[in-house]
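call fold(seq) -> tokens
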Amino acid sequence: MCVAMPAMLARVAHLLIAGLVDQPARPEPIVGGQDVGVCEFPASVFIGAYGGFHCTASLVHPRVIITAAHCMGGIDMVGFGEDIWNPAYTVAVESCAAHPDYDFYGIDLGVCTLTEDAPAVAMAPPLMGCEAEALTPGREITITGFGQD
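ret:
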């Protein structure tokens, strides 16, 4: 079960997105996509309850994942691997918190801490400081996740 996250981690979540992008009035859905190779995006993890898949998240620290705030309900595990129905490894979730200014059509960011370190996989560090200048309108980005049509 997710519980309130300490204020410091909630503040980290706020800093991660502050000023990075102008949010559109209504985001457009991502449709289609393509399969990727095994281990091509190891920081993309799946989250949910044991026995059920909810959403995708990104591992940004051995004990921290970032996901959409609308995925917060009922998260108790993070799954690693290529198959959401048969994870290679799972880690229990200690606590989760939505961004303090959560708005489904605007700021939709959540952070969860894990009960133990994730397996040794490459992490996706968030853009910080001057790195954020690389995220500009019109620049191509890659969005990963365990989706469905």
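Strands lie at 44-49, 52-61, 64-67, 77-80, 89-98, 110-114.
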